[in-house]
Amino acid sequence: MGYGGVHLHRVQPDLRQTGSRRPFCLGNPGGWSSSSPVHGHRGLSGCLSERDGQTPVAKAAAVCGASAVQRHADPALPVSPSLGCKTGESRLQGRRGGAWCRGPQLPAPQALLARLVVVAAAPHASSDRAVAALQLLQALQGRIHRALRAVWVTEIPLLLQYLAGRKESSLGSAEWEHRVLKFLRVSLEPIEDKAWTVGLSQELSQQLGSSAPGSWEKLFLYKVLGTVLAACQNLWHVQGQVLSFLQATDPVAEPQAMISVVSHAAESHFHLVLDTLTMYSDNFVRLYFGQTCTGSKAQQQQRMEIAQPFCAALMRTYSAVALCAPKEQLLSRVDKEILGDILRLSRAKQRGMQLKLAVVQSITEVCCAIQAVGNCGSFKLSLKQEAMRTLLDWMKREPWDSVLYGVFQALEKLSKLRPRLSREENRNLLAVCCHAVVSYPSEEQMKKGNRIARAALNTQLLHRRGMQDLGRLIETLLETQGSSACFDDMVHVLKGQLTSAMEWKRERALRVCTHLLDVCKDRHEFRRGRPCQQIGSLVGLLGCLTIDCLVTSRQRAGLCLSYLLEMQDNTVPVVLEAHEIRCLCEELDSPDPNTLVKTSIKIAKAVCKCIPPAQAVGFLRAIVDTLLHVTTTAQEASIVWKWVFVFLKECGKDILAEVPEFLTTLYTYMQRGTNRFFVPSAVSLLAICHREAVVSCLLQAGHLMDSNMIELWRSLGRSTFGIQILRCLAEKLNRAGNNCPGTGSSASEQHSRETALETLAITRAISEVVFVMSSTEQLRQLLPHILPSLLRWASETVGEERLPSAMSSWRQLFLEGRVLEQKPCRTFLLALKSVLEKCMEQKWMQLLMHRAVWARLEDPLAHPEGVSLLTSVLLQAGLISPSLVQNLLPWLDSSSVKLRVAAAAFFDEIPESYRTRRPSERGRN
């Protein structure tokens, strides 16, 4: 199948040129034999190795015959006296073995140079053959071409010196091949005869045709031909040879042919070779994408399978051209043309293994070529983002593909190039890469899938390599993107993996986290005192993992915490504490739960002190997220909550500004979590340090008095400072409604609505706190402050069914429906009733019930009578104190008619001995 010069069928390249010599037989003075390749070490290479100790001319005579050596050798070089007999003896042996033919004759100079260069570079157990080939070249330097003498005088001794100094006993390294090719390139530079260089390239093409496919000799001849084309000054010939190889090469059988010839030719003819390659590629892409979209599905599939090796070979050729291109010329064309064509060729609908490898390797090599330029100035790779998207989309679609681990290297190289990635791009890059590594099938999953042992082992090796590549990628991003920004992004990505429900994912994420923190703890950005912005959340996550079900996870979590401690403060005491934590990690493998608890708490006390107050909420949220996503037993949850308790005891006094969000997080978890009974203890510890702030925050969230909020208030009431919480609530209820704007305005109406909601929330909180209090005496001492506040709002709201005016929002309307399920007055009276039940004996409460005091207080018409009856019972119970009377005196001068009526009813029952002068009377005096 052909696409107008772009052949997609598998063919053997026919590169023989008309007019060139026939192949020269290694054992035949008249020509090269196609049946005796150098790879088999017969012919010339064999003869050279069998005649150690002879002079170079004698060795040439052993191959070519005495008369030929005398005709072609340099007259200044001596000929061995025994050359004649040696030659005759060799001829006799050659006739017996069929190696010698019709008479001595040296090949053409180009053929001799090509063959000896191949022999010199051929891999062998020793360097003797290479030394002999170089000595023979030195002996025949004047006869091959007169311009070589000045170059080889210095170059050949350098190669011989390199061989003499080698410690290895074999030749076969890429470095030696590179030296031989460089020697050939330097040798051809002074030759100005274009026809001679063209003849050399034609001779190499002939030798390629006679070489065994896939052999080392043929692969090396491709490189030699490319090097010769790079030195050739006949541009028409260079372009023709390059195009010939592009059209005739079979990418399935010999993909290296196209790559080697074209890339080496680009060393001196970069623009010419790239133009030729681009022309061929454009024609191929146009026809390829056109024909693969027509016909039946089977035909399209067949065309794709045929075309993919061509795409892979072209991509590899583009990247090889970039590697070999002159540094000063590369940047002008690497972006749009080289990388652009690679990305265009990668847009196949289906990618086989060969094409995937080619995409990854090509992008990696192009990046290496750009980095090799050195100082790129203001150069920016405009297709960097597109290349990254191509690789990342592939990883998302096939996260478990074995080829993907080469993608990490390509991404690492791309990350070093400008422009820098944005925060969003960097975070997406890290997220995709981490997911690919962390979510790779575990060993247990592979066993369940009935994979054979070798496949499971290969999978483990690939995963281990992926971990290493991800580590190098992280280090690169820390360098290029900035340590602090990249660290924050990495932590953001790892949070989701560290809270995974699968223990093997958490263990892998901890492995990545350990590497990240180990790298960052020694970086100067962190060691010079810059606080880590993610330390709070990291401590919360890692603290939870110190009680993980896997021992390795527990120990890695402890190690990470020690690194965090060093990052936050590198002073000597902290470094010693970090070392102590690393020692404690050994105890985290204990099967004894008590030992595990003690060790975890020790680590918590050392680490929680370094959490900045501003990150307290992040610390708590990390713990809450872990408890919500990771299945834990009640015992494990209790250990996790001990980290919260330790933090509140150590740092609770410093987090006043974080109290609202801290409480909101606790309340949210209480609504969703299973181990909700730990939350009240945390709230109580927080209230010890910030009582006023905790009460205010709970009241703001307490409009909906659900079971969780009731439990929080009751836990505060049970605490040792419950009476202080009640006093704080009473003061708030007494201050509610003060500083009201002028009547009749919209602001006044809004203030009235807010006051109504606030007073109801406070009153319900008082009811719950009083309900669980056991200290009657302390409550009696507080009665002069609580009773006036509750009675005041009961009198103010008596007879009201709803709030004063309509709600201003749907949320407030919803709150109104929940808060005002009963009359507002009844809420205040119920709270007052619960307070009195704790303060006086049961007989007085029965007397209140018998006289229907509560019903009268709720009735607008009988409310004054109810106040009178309540006052008389309080007098009999001995609960009327001077401070209570003093707190009720201002009601007599209140602007509220309801309060003045209630005050009159109260004072009518009070004896003269309890009364004091009114404020108005004190003012007149």
Structural class: mainly alpha
Largest sheet: 2 strands, antiparallel
Give unreliable regions as ranges. Answer: 1-53, 60-104, 804-820, 917-925
Helix content: 55-70%
Individual helix count? 47
- How far is it from the N-terminal to the C-terminal residue, by CA? 120 Å
Number of strands: 2
Shape: elongated
Share of β-strand residues: under 5%
Rg estimate, integer Å: 46 Å
Overall average pLDDT: 82
- Cross-sheet strand order for the largest sheet: 1-2
Give a structural overview.
- The protein has 925 residues and is mostly helical.
- Among the domains are: 38-233, no CATH class; 483-689, no CATH class; 705-738 and 748-839, no CATH class; 844-925, no CATH class.
- It is built from 47 helices and two strands.
- The protein has a two-stranded antiparallel ribbon with strand order 1-2.
- β1 and β2 form a beta hairpin.
- It starts with a strand and ends with a helix.
- The model is unreliable at 1-53, 60-104, 804-820 and 917-925 (pLDDT under 50).
- Residues 504-719 form the Maestro-like HEAT-repeats domain.
- Pfam families: HEAT_Maestro (PF21047), HEAT_Maestro_2 (PF23210).
Task: Summarize this entry quickly.
Residues 104-479 form the MROH2B-like HEAT-repeats domain. The chain is built from 47 helices and two strands. Strand 1 (2-3) and strand 2 (6-7) form a beta hairpin.
